[in-house]
């Protein structure tokens, strides 16, 4: 399944995301509610896992916005707010399940899978493609193979993951913070140049040998893949 996780705890978030990925799920982990909302409105997810106590735009507000736009994606609140009133507020906002912290990962996994089956039974699930394509660029996720115009391009593991992240979001603005969180599982760090370094290397492989530039920089904002 493709899962959106909104959790700003520096230890809990990566732990939950890592556990779900080990079970074969694709997890987009966000620590910022606004970026989580933008992502949820821009693409389909099978399940949303939302913390209610994220600073800024919290999980409750994120889900209310999605439900107001008639987004039916099953949502589970993962929160320290366990009082009856808080639970009722969560369900009234459109939540489908509610799990309070501390919790056992096996229980979270079971609840997420149950929500995924519910989405399947409604006939609204999507099958994840095993090969991503954009024009003459292809990325085989199973064979770990990248080609452009029939030429095989060797990519390192992080370069492959970075390109996969871009190809799943063609035409959309991707911020440096989003890349740090989703590709490197890192919180925002203004001192690191890991993103710029890897994008430079990726461009040297998929862009420079060819006529068209696929990764474009928006100064002060981030990057956009494709046109």
TrEMBL record:
Residues bearing 4-aspartylphosphate are 51
Specify the signal sequence span: none
Protein name, per record: Response regulator
Question: OmpR/PhoB-type domain location, by residue?
Answer: 129-227
Gene Ontology CC entries for this record = cytosol; protein-DNA complex
InterPro entries, A to Z: CheY-like_superfamily, OmpR/PhoB-type_DNA-bd, Sig_transdc_resp-reg_C-effctor, Sig_transdc_resp-reg_receiver, WalR-like, WH-like_DNA-bd_sf
Q: Which GO terms describe its molecular function?
A: phosphorelay response regulator activity; transcription cis-regulatory region binding
Superkingdom field? Bacteria
Q: Which UniProt keywords apply?
A: DNA-binding, Phosphoprotein, Transcription, Transcription regulation, Two-component regulatory system
List, alphabetically, the Pfam families matched.
Response_reg (PF00072), Trans_reg_C (PF00486)
Q: Which organism is it from?
A: Roseibium alexandrii (strain DSM 17067 / NCIMB 14079 / DFL-11) (Labrenzia alexandrii)
Q: Which Gene3D superfamilies match?
A: 3.40.50.2300, 6.10.250.690, Winged helix-like DNA-binding domain superfamily/Winged helix DNA-binding domain (1.10.10.10)
